Amino acid sequence: MAKKTTNPTKALKIPYLIRLSCKICAFISIKLSIRYAARLFTTPIKHKIPKRELTMDHNSRQEIIMVPEINKSINIYHYGDNIKKALLVHGWSGRGTQLFKIADELISNGYSIISFDAPAHGKSEGSTTIMSEFISSILEIDKQFGPFEIIIGHSLGGMSVLNAIRKGFQADKAIIVGSGDIVQDILDEFISKMELKKENSTRFRNFFEDKYQLKMDDYSAYRSAKKVKIPVLVIHDNDDPEVPVTAAIHIHKNLENGSLLLTDGLGHRKILGNQNVIKNIIKFIETD
Protein backbone atom coordinates (compact mmCIF):
# COMPACT_ATOMS: atom_id res chain seq x y z
CA MET A 1 0.00 0.00 0.00
CA ALA A 2 1.29 3.47 -0.86
CA LYS A 3 2.21 5.72 2.01
CA LYS A 4 3.31 9.32 2.31
CA THR A 5 6.94 10.29 2.03
CA THR A 6 8.58 9.78 5.40
CA ASN A 7 11.82 11.65 4.74
CA PRO A 8 10.83 15.10 3.47
CA THR A 9 14.10 16.63 4.72
CA LYS A 10 15.97 14.59 2.12
CA ALA A 11 14.20 16.32 -0.76
CA LEU A 12 16.36 18.65 -2.81
CA LYS A 13 16.31 22.18 -1.41
CA ILE A 14 17.03 25.31 -3.40
CA PRO A 15 19.82 27.34 -1.72
CA TYR A 16 18.72 30.35 0.30
CA LEU A 17 20.62 32.91 -1.80
CA ILE A 18 18.91 31.69 -4.97
CA ARG A 19 15.51 31.86 -3.33
CA LEU A 20 16.33 35.34 -2.04
CA SER A 21 17.47 36.46 -5.50
CA CYS A 22 14.18 35.27 -6.97
CA LYS A 23 12.21 37.17 -4.33
CA ILE A 24 14.16 40.33 -5.12
CA CYS A 25 13.39 39.83 -8.80
CA ALA A 26 9.70 39.40 -7.94
CA PHE A 27 9.78 42.66 -5.96
CA ILE A 28 11.15 44.45 -9.02
CA SER A 29 9.08 42.63 -11.65
CA ILE A 30 6.97 39.47 -11.71
CA LYS A 31 8.03 38.85 -15.33
CA LEU A 32 11.67 39.11 -14.32
CA SER A 33 11.19 36.60 -11.49
CA ILE A 34 9.44 34.15 -13.86
CA ARG A 35 12.31 34.39 -16.38
CA TYR A 36 14.83 33.92 -13.58
CA ALA A 37 12.95 30.90 -12.21
CA ALA A 38 12.63 29.44 -15.72
CA ARG A 39 16.38 29.72 -16.23
CA LEU A 40 16.99 27.85 -12.99
CA PHE A 41 14.33 25.24 -13.83
CA THR A 42 15.97 24.43 -17.15
CA THR A 43 19.59 24.37 -15.91
CA PRO A 44 20.69 20.94 -14.67
CA ILE A 45 23.61 20.49 -12.31
CA LYS A 46 26.56 18.74 -13.96
CA HIS A 47 27.94 16.45 -11.27
CA LYS A 48 31.40 14.94 -11.50
CA ILE A 49 31.14 11.27 -12.44
CA PRO A 50 31.43 9.20 -9.23
CA LYS A 51 33.97 6.38 -8.92
CA ARG A 52 31.28 3.71 -8.93
CA GLU A 53 30.35 4.67 -12.52
CA LEU A 54 33.90 4.80 -13.90
CA THR A 55 33.96 1.16 -15.05
CA MET A 56 31.02 1.74 -17.38
CA ASP A 57 32.51 5.03 -18.50
CA HIS A 58 35.94 3.50 -19.24
CA ASN A 59 34.56 0.36 -20.91
CA SER A 60 32.09 2.14 -23.18
CA ARG A 61 32.74 3.21 -26.72
CA GLN A 62 31.66 6.83 -26.81
CA GLU A 63 30.73 9.14 -29.64
CA ILE A 64 29.03 12.46 -30.19
CA ILE A 65 25.93 12.57 -32.39
CA MET A 66 23.80 15.47 -33.55
CA VAL A 67 20.08 15.60 -32.81
CA PRO A 68 18.82 17.63 -35.79
CA GLU A 69 15.36 18.35 -34.35
CA ILE A 70 16.90 20.39 -31.51
CA ASN A 71 20.20 21.29 -33.18
CA LYS A 72 22.19 19.96 -30.24
CA SER A 73 24.78 17.20 -29.91
CA ILE A 74 24.79 14.51 -27.25
CA ASN A 75 27.33 12.02 -25.93
CA ILE A 76 26.47 8.36 -26.61
CA TYR A 77 27.71 5.32 -24.64
CA HIS A 78 27.93 1.88 -26.31
CA TYR A 79 28.39 -0.69 -23.54
CA GLY A 80 28.60 -4.43 -24.22
CA ASP A 81 28.59 -6.35 -27.51
CA ASN A 82 25.52 -8.58 -27.39
CA ILE A 83 22.97 -8.62 -30.20
CA LYS A 84 19.87 -7.56 -28.24
CA LYS A 85 19.80 -3.88 -27.29
CA ALA A 86 18.52 -1.88 -24.33
CA LEU A 87 18.36 1.90 -24.14
CA LEU A 88 18.84 3.54 -20.74
CA VAL A 89 17.65 7.09 -20.03
CA HIS A 90 18.86 8.99 -16.96
CA GLY A 91 16.94 11.66 -15.08
CA TRP A 92 17.45 15.36 -14.42
CA SER A 93 21.06 16.22 -13.51
CA GLY A 94 22.02 12.60 -14.17
CA ARG A 95 24.46 10.97 -16.59
CA GLY A 96 24.52 8.18 -19.12
CA THR A 97 26.43 5.98 -16.66
CA GLN A 98 24.03 6.50 -13.75
CA LEU A 99 22.13 3.24 -14.33
CA PHE A 100 25.36 1.24 -14.44
CA LYS A 101 24.22 -1.55 -12.10
CA ILE A 102 21.15 -2.17 -14.22
CA ALA A 103 23.37 -2.01 -17.32
CA ASP A 104 25.80 -4.61 -15.93
CA GLU A 105 22.97 -7.02 -15.12
CA LEU A 106 21.43 -6.58 -18.55
CA ILE A 107 24.78 -7.36 -20.19
CA SER A 108 24.98 -10.53 -18.10
CA ASN A 109 21.57 -11.45 -19.49
CA GLY A 110 22.45 -11.02 -23.15
CA TYR A 111 21.87 -7.32 -23.86
CA SER A 112 24.08 -4.55 -25.16
CA ILE A 113 23.51 -1.12 -23.66
CA ILE A 114 23.18 2.24 -25.29
CA SER A 115 22.82 5.25 -23.02
CA PHE A 116 23.48 8.94 -23.43
CA ASP A 117 24.12 12.21 -21.68
CA ALA A 118 21.02 14.28 -22.39
CA PRO A 119 21.50 17.84 -23.66
CA ALA A 120 23.27 19.99 -21.03
CA HIS A 121 24.08 16.85 -19.00
CA GLY A 122 27.32 14.96 -18.45
CA LYS A 123 29.64 15.30 -21.44
CA SER A 124 26.99 16.75 -23.73
CA GLU A 125 27.12 20.41 -24.72
CA GLY A 126 24.94 23.22 -23.45
CA SER A 127 23.75 24.56 -20.13
CA THR A 128 19.95 24.41 -20.41
CA THR A 129 17.42 21.85 -21.62
CA ILE A 130 13.82 20.67 -21.22
CA MET A 131 12.05 17.32 -21.37
CA SER A 132 11.12 17.66 -25.04
CA GLU A 133 14.86 17.60 -25.82
CA PHE A 134 15.23 14.33 -23.88
CA ILE A 135 12.45 12.92 -26.03
CA SER A 136 13.98 14.17 -29.28
CA SER A 137 17.29 12.59 -28.25
CA ILE A 138 15.63 9.21 -27.62
CA LEU A 139 13.92 9.29 -31.01
CA GLU A 140 17.15 10.21 -32.80
CA ILE A 141 19.05 7.41 -31.03
CA ASP A 142 16.32 5.02 -32.15
CA LYS A 143 16.82 6.15 -35.77
CA GLN A 144 20.58 5.70 -35.63
CA PHE A 145 21.03 2.68 -33.37
CA GLY A 146 17.67 0.91 -33.04
CA PRO A 147 15.67 -1.17 -32.89
CA PHE A 148 15.71 -1.74 -29.13
CA GLU A 149 14.10 -4.61 -27.27
CA ILE A 150 14.06 -2.75 -23.93
CA ILE A 151 13.96 0.87 -22.81
CA ILE A 152 14.45 1.96 -19.19
CA GLY A 153 14.10 5.48 -17.79
CA HIS A 154 14.65 7.04 -14.38
CA SER A 155 12.78 10.08 -13.03
CA LEU A 156 12.46 12.64 -15.86
CA GLY A 157 13.89 9.88 -18.05
CA GLY A 158 10.83 7.77 -17.18
CA MET A 159 8.48 10.54 -18.31
CA SER A 160 10.57 10.92 -21.46
CA VAL A 161 10.38 7.18 -22.18
CA LEU A 162 6.57 7.16 -22.12
CA ASN A 163 6.43 10.27 -24.29
CA ALA A 164 8.91 8.80 -26.77
CA ILE A 165 6.84 5.60 -27.08
CA ARG A 166 3.75 7.72 -27.70
CA LYS A 167 5.69 9.50 -30.46
CA GLY A 168 6.69 6.27 -32.19
CA PHE A 169 9.62 4.70 -30.34
CA GLN A 170 9.19 0.93 -30.53
CA ALA A 171 10.39 -1.61 -28.00
CA ASP A 172 9.16 -4.93 -26.64
CA LYS A 173 8.97 -3.69 -23.05
CA ALA A 174 9.62 -0.57 -20.98
CA ILE A 175 10.60 0.06 -17.37
CA ILE A 176 10.26 3.40 -15.61
CA VAL A 177 11.76 4.07 -12.17
CA GLY A 178 10.84 7.00 -9.93
CA SER A 179 9.05 8.73 -12.79
CA GLY A 180 7.30 12.05 -12.45
CA ASP A 181 3.75 12.33 -13.75
CA ILE A 182 1.76 15.56 -14.07
CA VAL A 183 3.79 18.46 -15.43
CA GLN A 184 1.73 21.10 -13.63
CA ASP A 185 2.45 19.40 -10.31
CA ILE A 186 6.18 19.63 -11.06
CA LEU A 187 5.87 23.32 -11.93
CA ASP A 188 3.81 23.98 -8.79
CA GLU A 189 6.40 22.28 -6.61
CA PHE A 190 9.24 24.30 -8.11
CA ILE A 191 7.39 27.59 -7.62
CA SER A 192 6.75 26.56 -4.02
CA LYS A 193 10.43 25.72 -3.47
CA MET A 194 11.35 29.13 -4.88
CA GLU A 195 8.96 30.61 -2.29
CA LEU A 196 7.01 32.50 -4.93
CA LYS A 197 3.26 33.04 -4.69
CA LYS A 198 1.11 30.11 -5.83
CA GLU A 199 -0.54 32.10 -8.63
CA ASN A 200 2.85 32.37 -10.32
CA SER A 201 2.58 28.70 -11.32
CA THR A 202 0.19 29.64 -14.10
CA ARG A 203 2.55 32.39 -15.29
CA PHE A 204 5.39 29.90 -15.12
CA ARG A 205 3.52 27.42 -17.33
CA ASN A 206 2.47 30.13 -19.76
CA PHE A 207 6.09 31.27 -20.09
CA PHE A 208 7.20 27.81 -21.26
CA GLU A 209 4.20 27.31 -23.52
CA ASP A 210 4.81 30.67 -25.23
CA LYS A 211 8.57 30.13 -25.55
CA TYR A 212 8.47 26.57 -26.88
CA GLN A 213 5.04 26.64 -28.56
CA LEU A 214 3.77 23.53 -26.81
CA LYS A 215 1.20 22.51 -24.23
CA MET A 216 3.00 21.47 -21.05
CA ASP A 217 0.28 19.06 -19.92
CA ASP A 218 0.64 17.13 -23.17
CA TYR A 219 3.93 15.84 -21.73
CA SER A 220 2.41 14.53 -18.50
CA ALA A 221 3.34 10.87 -18.10
CA TYR A 222 -0.20 9.60 -17.49
CA ARG A 223 -1.36 11.09 -20.80
CA SER A 224 1.32 9.20 -22.71
CA ALA A 225 0.64 6.08 -20.63
CA LYS A 226 -2.87 5.95 -22.10
CA LYS A 227 -1.35 5.50 -25.57
CA VAL A 228 1.27 2.89 -24.63
CA LYS A 229 0.35 -0.68 -25.58
CA ILE A 230 3.54 -2.59 -24.70
CA PRO A 231 4.14 -4.04 -21.20
CA VAL A 232 5.49 -1.42 -18.80
CA LEU A 233 6.93 -2.04 -15.33
CA VAL A 234 6.46 0.98 -13.06
CA ILE A 235 8.88 1.01 -10.10
CA HIS A 236 8.75 3.57 -7.31
CA ASP A 237 9.73 3.88 -3.67
CA ASN A 238 7.13 4.74 -1.05
CA ASP A 239 9.76 6.93 0.64
CA ASP A 240 10.83 8.87 -2.47
CA PRO A 241 11.30 12.47 -1.23
CA GLU A 242 11.55 13.98 -4.71
CA VAL A 243 8.69 12.36 -6.62
CA PRO A 244 5.62 11.22 -4.66
CA VAL A 245 4.61 7.57 -5.01
CA THR A 246 1.16 8.75 -6.12
CA ALA A 247 2.80 9.57 -9.48
CA ALA A 248 3.61 5.89 -10.06
CA ILE A 249 0.16 4.75 -8.98
CA HIS A 250 -1.53 7.23 -11.33
CA ILE A 251 0.70 6.28 -14.27
CA HIS A 252 0.05 2.58 -13.63
CA LYS A 253 -3.72 3.13 -13.61
CA ASN A 254 -3.50 4.66 -17.08
CA LEU A 255 -1.43 1.88 -18.65
CA GLU A 256 -3.13 -0.81 -20.70
CA ASN A 257 -0.49 -3.41 -19.84
CA GLY A 258 1.26 -2.17 -16.72
CA SER A 259 2.82 -3.77 -13.64
CA LEU A 260 3.57 -1.87 -10.43
CA LEU A 261 6.44 -2.52 -8.01
CA LEU A 262 6.59 -0.39 -4.85
CA THR A 263 9.59 -0.50 -2.53
CA ASP A 264 10.38 0.94 0.89
CA GLY A 265 13.33 2.93 2.17
CA LEU A 266 15.21 3.27 -1.13
CA GLY A 267 14.38 6.86 -1.97
CA HIS A 268 14.84 8.37 -5.41
CA ARG A 269 18.34 7.19 -6.42
CA LYS A 270 19.37 4.26 -4.24
CA ILE A 271 16.57 2.33 -5.91
CA LEU A 272 18.65 2.17 -9.11
CA GLY A 273 21.26 -0.05 -7.47
CA ASN A 274 19.04 -2.25 -5.31
CA GLN A 275 19.56 -5.92 -6.16
CA ASN A 276 15.95 -6.90 -5.52
CA VAL A 277 14.76 -4.13 -7.85
CA ILE A 278 17.22 -5.23 -10.52
CA LYS A 279 16.14 -8.85 -10.07
CA ASN A 280 12.53 -7.80 -10.67
CA ILE A 281 13.55 -5.86 -13.77
CA ILE A 282 15.25 -8.95 -15.24
CA LYS A 283 12.27 -11.14 -14.29
CA PHE A 284 9.90 -8.69 -16.02
CA ILE A 285 12.06 -8.62 -19.14
CA GLU A 286 12.33 -12.41 -19.36
CA THR A 287 8.64 -13.14 -18.71
CA ASP A 288 6.63 -13.81 -21.88
From TrEMBL:
Keywords: Hydrolase. Residues 224-286 form the Peptidase S33 tripeptidyl aminopeptidase-like C-terminal domain. Residues 87-179 form the AB hydrolase-1 domain. The keyword Metal-binding does not apply. The keyword Hydrolase applies. One of its GO terms (molecular function) is hydrolase activity. Pfam families: Abhydrolase_4, Abhydrolase_6. It comes from the Bacteria. This is Alpha/beta fold hydrolase.
